[in-house]
Write a structure and sequence with these properties.
Blueprint (H helix, E strand, L loop, with lengths): L9 E5 L1 E4 L5 E4 L12 E5 L8 E7 L4 E7 L2 E6 L4 E6 L4 E5 L4 E5 L6 E6 L8 E2 L2 H9 L2
Antiparallel strand pairs: 1-9, 2-3, 4-11, 5-10, 5-12, 6-9, 6-11, 7-8, 7-10
């Protein structure tokens, strides 16, 4: 994983991990410690068998999230309106902060990919920016 984040409203999150060989790994995240907010919602994405799938394609006005690839791999594309970055997500010990006003897209999923997302608020459709041109306008109006 590229450990340098160039886009605004983002950053790298490292979880505690313990190798308990031969009994697997234990990875721990805690609200307001290595997860910089109280977790109000989480969701996961799996069964990404279509290699041409694209997910995301949106930004949020206020919501903050952290995205992890807990199995397999995918490419996370970030865009803050000025800078763009592609990050290979393939290490379950690291997540990427998806702060507000950050366009994100996921693609190039391995067949065994499992994505976990933690969010600091409950679902609110009004917080979504689902059109890229509207996202750019939103960034420029403030």
């Amino acid at each position: 994983m590229n450990k340098k984040i160039k886009v605004k409203n983002s950053g790298l999150i490292k979880l505690q991990s313990f190798n308990d060989f031969p009994d697997g790994n234990l990875v721990i995240g805690e609200s307001n410690r290595n997860v910089p907010f109280v977790i109000k919602r989480f969701y996961f994405i799996n069964n990404l068998f279509n290699k041409k799938s694209h997910r995301g394609h949106h930004a949020h006005k206020k919501l903050e999230q952290i995205i992890f690839c807990i199995n397999g791999s995918f490419v996370l594309k970030l865009d803050d309106g000025k800078n763009k970055q592609r990050i290979l997500m393939d290490n379950p010990h690291y997540g990427v902060r998806l702060g507000p006003k950050l366009w994100h897209t996921m693609e190039k999923f391995s067949a065994d990919c499992v994505i976990l997302v933690l969010a600091d608020d409950y679902y609110q459709e009004s917080d979504y920016l689902r059109n890229y041109d509207e996202f750019i306008k939103y960034l420029n109006k403030k």
